[in-house]
Amino acid sequence: MRSYHDRFLSAYIECALWSSTDNADDTGGEPLDANYSVDDLSPECLEAMRKDCASFIAASGVDASDNWTAEQAGHDFWLTRNEHGAGFRDRGHGAEGADLAQHAKSFGSCDLYVGDDGGMHAS
Hints:
- This protein has helices at residues 4-19, 43-60, 70-81, 94-105, and strands at residues 112-114, 120-122.
- It is mainly alpha-helical.
- Strands 1-2 form a two-stranded antiparallel sheet.
- The longest helix has 18 residues, at 43-60.
- The chain is globular, with a radius of gyration of 14 Å.
């Protein structure tokens, strides 16, 4: 069975690819998950994502909550930290959701982009 951390990270990456675009045209282009996968993340990007997820879990204690699965929490961490207007506050868990949202926002935003090397990077 995969660990909480691994499932959280997978959901975080899936959400990042789904909610980010390639900026190929004036409308923003295609969602990254249409043409890219976790295999396209640069080693540095994957490591930065892994560290952010582990730090968030440790700082927030979300893994001890009965209200979020690892998959929901990973998804909500990406959306909330990037202020997509959805995330931890939308699941109906009151103060706990607000606290997790505050933790997520403390990480600042993160954008994915396709580098000149064809790999995915984060800024």
